[in-house]
Amino acid sequence: MKKLVLFDIDKTLIKHSDAHISAFSEALKKVYGIDSSIDVINYDGLTDQLIIIEVLKKNGLDDDTIKLKLKDCMKVMIDFFNKIVDNDPIILLDGVKKLLEELRKDNVLLGLVTGSLEPIAKSKLKKVSVDSYFKLGGFGSDDMDRTKLIKIAIKKAEDNFDFRFSDNVFLVGDTPRDIKAGKEARVKTIGVATGIYSKEDLEKSGADFVLENLKDKNRFLEIIYGNYKKENLV
Fold first, then answer.
1. Which residues of the chain does CATH 3.40.50.1000 include?
2. I want to staple 141 with a disulfide (CB 3.0 to 4.6 A). Which of 37, 102, 117, 223 is the partner?
3. E strand or H helix at 222, and its extent?
4. DSSP string spanning 92-158?
5. Phi/psi at 138 (nearest 5 deg)?
């Protein structure tokens, strides 16, 4: 049975992206005239579209005004991010590269489920040289609902990689919002305490499995394969 593993990016695969945060501030100011950091809300686990909306609401804008310029705001974000990403000190988290290499070697299908807009997500991963591992994804530019992004990613796997959705999809993320979305999409969830949430927080959110980080490659593989033998999973 083929396996599909879907990874969040920020604080799951990488530490963070300063350029991404700066791109929000630049776009909010240029498109809406709002001089605001996204720190005015708890944005961990939110899609980029929802972050924009919630920050603007916090600054007093109404839904119609926000919706009118939302696409313009996302375009400005992408353009600005691409201008400054070369100087962004993006750091891959410990254990990630070795884990991805092992999963690819074992023919596990790898994808992304991230709130980041697709061009920004791909640029981040290219910067740390892991973009080639991921064959598909659900991105913040596809929808603002993270649960829908999981379903989008699974549909791409079914349409393009002869994948059949059964009890064989794992979502990896660092926030309770990742776990909630995974449960709503009926996939197995792996919480990693590499962000602001502890193992206990992720356990309370209902994660099927919780890891301190992605350094324990063997434990991760045990979760993915269960009682199956790896040689049968092709």
1. 4-16+91-232
2. 117
3. helix 217-225
4. BPTTHHHHHHHHHHTT-EEEEE-SS-HHHHHHHHHHTT-GGG--EEE-TTT-S-HHHHHHHHHHHHH
5. -115, 125
Structure tokens at 208: 């099927």
What does the block give as tokens for 20? 């991404």
Architecture of the domain made up of 4-16+91-232: 3-Layer(aba) Sandwich (3.40)
Are 99 and 5 in contact by the 8 Å Cβ rule? The answer is no
- What stretch(es) of the chain map to CATH 1.10.150.240? 18-87
User: Residue 184: left (phi > 0), alpha (psi -120 to 50), or beta?
Assistant: alpha
Residue 37's CB is within 10 A of a number of other CB atoms, namely 12
* 1 pLDDT tier (thresholds 50, 70, 90): low
The vertex-140 CA angle with 137 and 142, nearest 5°, equals: 70
31-73 confidence digits (pLDDT tens): 999 999 999 999 999 999 999 999 999 999 999 999 999 999 9
85 DSSP 8-state letter? G
